[in-house]
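User: Earlier you gave me the apo prediction for this protein. Now I'd like the version with pyridoxal-5'-phosphate bound, so I can compare the two side by side. Same sequence as before, with the ligand SMILES added.
Assistant: Got it. Here's the input I'm using:
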Amino acid sequence: MVKLANNPTSLTKGWSGIIEAYRPYLPVNETTPVVTLLEGNTPLIPVPQIAAQIGRQVQVYVKYDGLNPTGSFKDRGMTMAISKAKEAGAQAVICASTGNTSAAAAAYARRCGMRALVIIPDGYVALGKLAQALLYGAEVIAIDGNFDEALTVVKQLAENYPITLVNSLNPYRLEGQKTAAFEVVDILGDAPDWLCVPVGNAGNISAYWMGFCQYHQVGKCQKLPKMMGFQAAGSAPLIAGHPISSPNTVATAIRIGNPANWDKAIATQESSQGEFNAVTDAEILEAYQLLASREGIFCEPASAASVAGLLKCRDQVPSGSTVVCVLTGNGLKDPDAAIKYSDNSVKAGIAPNLEVVADLVGF
Ligand SMILES: *Cc1c(COP(=O)(O)O)cnc(C)c1O
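And here is the structure of the complex with pyridoxal-5'-phosphate:
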């Protein structure tokens, strides 16, 4: 098979996307057509205001994966899933999505000329994500049901028709997503002591764990992190120990009642001596505002669950340790939430007059 003519690897200097960067660790070969938007290489940003709330010389970073091409970590998995689907000759891919998977699937599938079929739970997909899927050219179907019901339909379609499933049940998704762990170690020089992650279908936490273990095996890191997974309290099946039939939370990206990667999630927690904990919507929104207004980092509500969780468990963090919180998606994905839940508001209806405006801002 020939390389895609528009394969950016041959055209760019520097970063060439996660497949080129981590090729020896990924199930690709010379004939795999690399479908990439140069995802990955996202910043690990220190968050001193959050660290100060913990104290005891704890260093805290956020892995800001909202800076990927479609605005979430899903791009890491999608470059792999779509490249492998292309290699296998697929002409259409399908996913159920709370939004970010559909945006990523649509972008990568359309980039290589495949159909992207997207099934979403009606009314529970953030505006920015829906806008992306539509403009990228996905065929979007909203069902009267939640994510878990959408996933059931999608699995049946993929079993009965020539359509490739690109939800995180697709093993290539996790392979791609594990590269975020590689990047963290490449920057820190070792694994962190804690990794805090928001958990929905539990693909990401499982992928990070795979990545850390693989790097540990080849000697790239000396230790392994405690994997700390956080679910929204209204949507916390892994903490309840059973599926939740009507999950609810403001953090729509993790509004999932029956995680597709349940067994992997438990295995990750056990082998890393980690924990699953629930954070309330109020705690999520507090962390969301704190990140934006004190650290200058705008993530979507689901992403803030990692920081909310860290703050909730702050007394357990060992002195002098290093913590990484994963910020899974960009704040611009959900502008409605930002406006609705901000303490801040626009002072409107003001005359265009120096004295009036100066007075208003306290001068
Ligand atoms: C998909 C997603 C999650 C949840 O990841 P899982 O792999 O399903 O656990 C969290 N945050 C954002 C922004 C997401 O898009």
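For your comparison, keep in mind: The pocket of pyridoxal-5'-phosphate is lined by residues 72, 74, 100, 168, 198-204, 253-254, 300, 302-303, 328-329 (CB under 6 Å).
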